[in-house]
Amino acid sequence: AQSVTQPDIHITVSEGASLELRCNYSYGATPYLFWYVQSPGQGLQLLLKYFSGDTLVQGIKGFEAEFKRSQSSFNLRKPSVHWSDAAEYFCAVGVGSARQLTFGSGTQLTVLP
Amino acid sequence: SAVISQKPSRDICQRGTSLTIQCQVDSQVTMMFWYRQQPGQSLTLIATANQGSEATYESGFVIDKFPISRPNLTFSTLTVSNMSPEDSSIYLCSVDRKNNEQFFGPGTRLTVL
């Protein structure tokens, strides 16, 4: 069965600093990979996805992620964090038709002024 | 993206009672999913709801506890039966689109006393 690991439970960065959130997956083939963001009291919003092709994918709100097959990773990055980025971020993997998602445990991002 | 609404948005219920959560989508979709997010935890898939057939439940979830209906291609309900405080969670429905993206509803925050 597939699994997703987000090793960082909580990350704190200063506004304007760069950000990288880690995600590792376990699956026998190339999975579909997703990053979602959940703001307090809000539902989940899809930031970006990787299915195939270019391993560097661009998403909304200035986020990008890079798929590295050799490391089984799909890390999320942003060059300059804004205070509004404070939220919880979930990495997810979908197998088969990507219709069933397995989520990581999430990383809580705090942004300091 | 899909517009997904859930009712109720939140509820406080007594132990032993049942609550039915509704999920309405603005367009026809093949598959709908129900997830549970326990306090401070990630999302766990409860079941997949297909129109015209029985829902498919994940390990650890059973139909007697979480009966699901899917009467048409835009609507589904999840019932949390014989509730206990351990059922206090956010329950989210999601739908997948043709490009294999899942969109989530705003969630139903359930508190069981």
Describe the structure.
The complex is a heterodimer of chains A (113) and B (113). Chain A has 113 residues and is mostly beta strands. Chain A has strands spanning 3-5, 10-14, 19-21, 24-26, 32-38, 44-50, 56-58, 64-68, 73-78, 87-95, 100-103, 107-112. In chain A, a hairpin with a 4-residue loop joins β8 (64-68) and β9. Helix content of chain B is 0%, strand content 52%. Chain B has strands at 4-7, 10-13, 19-25, 31-37, 43-50, 56-57, 68-72, 75-80, 89-96, 102-104, 108-112. In chain B, strands 2, 4, 5, 6, 9, 10 and 11 form a 7-stranded mixed β-sheet that branches. In chain B, strands 1-3-8-7 form a 4-stranded antiparallel β-sheet, with no helix packed on it. In chain B, a hairpin with a 5-residue loop joins β9 and β10 (102-104). Chain B is globular and about 40 Å long. Classes of the chains: A mainly beta (113), B mainly beta (113). The A-B interface holds A 32, 34, 36, 42-46, 49, 51, 90, 94, 97-106 and B 31, 33, 41-45, 48, 92, 94, 96, 100-107.
What tags apply to this protein structure?
heterodimer, A: 113 residues, mainly beta, 6-stranded mixed β-sheet, 4-stranded antiparallel β-sheet, 12 strands, globular, B: 113 residues, 7-stranded mixed β-sheet, 11 strands, 52% strand
